[in-house]
Amino acid sequence: MKIYGVAILAGCYLAGQFIGEMLGSALGIGGNVGGVGFAMLLLLIANDWMKKRPSLTGDTNKGILFWSSMYIPVVIAMSATQDIKSALSGGHVAIIAGIAVTLACVLLVPAVSKIGRSKSNPHS
After folding, report:
1. pLDDT, tens only, 10-21
2. Is residue 123 part of a domain?
């Protein structure tokens, strides 16, 4: 069975949109909250998981790498079309979400920096 990345991208996108809709409903917002971001996170996780599988073929690996690389510019293009002014005037949610995500990233830097270090040389 060959998967060249499109099915994985589609599955991650659909799962991310579902999570974003559920989060929007839980927060009492009538829209999707972070669905594309969740999809990107799921794609990164799927990409890492697929790389560790011995049955991953070279073509599949190239396809996953291609779509992982293409997803970020697509997300930026989609984000550029959003109306930031109306998002900020629509309430505190955008500001709170931005602050929360920034704090989460700052707090995760030490944990992420430890990924990939060899156990035999902990100072690398």
Report:
1. 888 889 889 988
2. no
